[in-house]
Specification:
This protein has a single domain, classed as SGNH hydrolase (Rossmann fold, 3-Layer(aba) Sandwich), CATH 3.40.50. It is built from eight helices and six strands. Helix 3 packs across helix 8, helix 4 packs parallel to helix 6 and helix 6 packs across helix 7.
Amino acid sequence: MSLAVKLALSPLLVAQAVLTRRRLPVLPEPAGARQGEAGAAKAAPLRLLITGDSSAAGVGVVHQRQALAAQLAQHLARGCAARVQWRLLAKSGLSSAQTLHLLQREGVGLQADVAVVVTGVNDVVEQVPSHHAVSAREGLANALRNAHGVQHVVFAPLPPIHHFPGLPQPLRWVAGSDARRHNKALLQWVRQRGGDVSLVDMETPLNAGVMAADGFHPGELVYRYCAAAIAEHIAAKVWPRVLPHLRPAAGAGA
């Protein structure tokens, strides 16, 4: 989409954005534990961190069992034959840069082998330029690698915002175009960065029947799909690299 078209639509887009913020219900983050363990006790241990925005936090469902983190841990335990020790550090409304600040503020002492980062929608909402969002993700990757022992950082792509039923047209169309531009910039950076980061290749199927009540956040079926897709990516492309460097499982060789 050209900048000229976006500028021409800007008065309408601003009005729609304000009205949409007022109209959409504010959904809470789900209840339930934000850390846990999945898999056999003597399996290879995998410390997993999930961090990011409302979709990482599970907004749209009532309990963490239905959200991304817990389902992802279960899928990984099966797909990698691992004992997954997972931790969720996420908050609704965060941009990529704010997710880095959350990690710096509340992640002191936190250690993990693999991190999954779910951010980007709020970068689009707040009109953060794509190169600034990528710079924030680079900061996240560096912090996770250098301060938290993470060997590989997995980024989830922005969802197809142009399918969000809670957004009116043309706001939905423009936001979807922005999301595609952000994903393109993210993919280019991942390819340039090297082997310690990756981007999950998935196109989340969205419609009113699988979204939360606000038409903006995922429902349980979407979280289930995303958890399976991210787990498949990790099992196929990340786990073989990480496994040789993991500490022995407790009780191994006993």
